[in-house]
Amino acid sequence: MRNLCFYFQIHLPFRLKRYRFFEIGQDHYYYDDFQTEDRIRNVVEQSYLTANRIIGDMIRSSNGKFHCAFSISGPALEQLEQYAPEVMDSFKELSKTGSVEFLAEPFAHSLSSIFDADEFERQVKKHADKIEELFGKRPTALVNAEMIYSDEIGEMVSKMGYKTMMIDEAKHILGWKSPNFVYSHAYNPKLKLIVRNQKLSDDMAFRFSNNSLTAEAFISSIANLPAEENTITLGMGYEVFGMTQPAHTGIFDFLKALPYHAMEQKMNFVLPSEHSKKSDSAGSLSVPCPISWVGNDKDLTPWTGNDLQLEALNKLYAVGERVRLCSDKPLLLDWFLLQSTDHFRYMSHKDAHGTNFESAYDAFMNYMNILADFIERVKEQFPTSVDNEELNELLKTINHLEIRNEQLEEEVKKLKSRKTKAVI
């Protein structure tokens, strides 16, 4: 029986305000709240609320057989909690159905997996903690920001305890292989890889209105695939529903009709983590250089393709060790929000979609002014006179104390539990 695995990405960066050179050291607030709120209210009203309601209806009308997964970035979660709590409530209702899975990702929707392995691990943990806090269940599957993946990243993810990771279809990696199977890490078979089918995903996301696509025709095209190709993974930004494809195109009616036609063709809907557990690997995938889900080349050039981007990224991650020693909450929040991949894409000469800057250089100068102020704030807490060796020793001590503190808290919980049982 054929399985359909739906994955929806939700990420919205905090918009940076125009920040001039003379504001460095004077103004420590970097965000354009008006633009941020205006953008999220638009996407909430035109997309998220309606799509969530429809998915809830799809789950109920299919007796819980329709399943889908979401990855909601840290910045998006922060904005939804602040500006659209009704959307968070609707996601919590979907979570209660048991038909929805929330995936882990680096909290900041960042490039930390490329530039700072320690930061990547900390962000994944922070995001998983947040998802568990909001929805009551800890993620067991992971998708990296922009679906960035390589053998090295997969190894890091596996060491964190994850056994399932979502990646994108890249022709130069798959070669003759089909994306419609579950694969495994190049040298760690415990990590299963679920590959997004690019063509079918893009048919829904970008070619829907052009081709007058119907749910029946879409499901039929999947049914006509070779019988042995048993897993079709469809992944896209959630704003496809109502924004990329406006309501008048019929995209919501298309979404509603999918379960009916899929079940008519004897297809199942599966969650990523459940599917990887039940499926044998069709073989390993070797990905020596990082891939992403953007563009034809599927590489990192949208964020690292020019000197401006690399200058900004290298300067940002150079202070990572110092920031991780800080306890200043506003500073730590800025650290996460300044890492969003969007800020570096706006510096691209080729693909800067979504930017509110006049040019790549304009985006770069604005970001570097903000970064200069941010770095000065970090230096105030940990001066550059403290060398890296001292920082590393201090970080080890702090980590040791944090681990010991967690152990003591666990012992206290056990003692309280024993005391309660004794009283009963």
Descriptive overview:
This protein is α/β, with parallel strands linked by helices. It folds into 3 domains: 3-285, 7-stranded beta/alpha barrel (Alpha-Beta Barrel), CATH 3.20.110; 301-381; 387-424. The protein contains 19 helices and 10 strands. It has helices at 33-61, 74-83, 85-96, 112-115, 117-135, 151-159, 171-174, 198-205, 208-211, 215-223, 251-264, 272-278, 301-304, 307-317, 320-324, 329-337, 341-345, 360-381, 388-423; strands spanning 3-10, 68-72, 100-102, 141-143, 164-168, 182-185, 192-196, 231-237, 268-269, 284-285. Strands 1, 2, 3, 8 and 9 form a 5-stranded parallel beta sheet that branches. The chain has a 5-stranded mixed beta sheet with strand order 4-5-7-6-10. Helix 1 links the parallel strand 1 (3-10) and strand 2. The termini are far apart. The model has no long low-confidence stretch (mean pLDDT 92).
What are the salient characteristics of this protein?
single chain; 424 residues; alpha/beta; five-stranded parallel β-sheet; 10 strands; 10% strand; globular
In short:
With 424 residues, this protein is α/β, with parallel strands linked by helices.
What would the average pLDDT be, to the nearest integer? 92
SS elements, strand count: 10
Name the helicity range.
40-55%
Number of helices: 19
Order of helices and strands: EHEHHEHHEHEHEEHHHEHEHEHHHHHHH
- How far the N terminus sits from the C terminus, by CA atoms, comes to 51 Å
At the first level of CATH, the class of the largest domain is: Alpha Beta
- Beta content comes to 5-15%
Question: What's the assembly state of these chains?
Answer: single chain
CATH topology of the largest domain, by name, is 7-stranded beta/alpha barrel
Named at the architecture level, the CATH assignment of the largest domain is: Alpha-Beta Barrel
Question: Largest sheet at a glance?
Answer: 5 strands, parallel
Low-confidence stretches: none
Overall geometry: globular
Q: What number of structural domains do the residues give? A: 3
Structural class: alpha/beta
Rg, Å, rounded: 22 Å
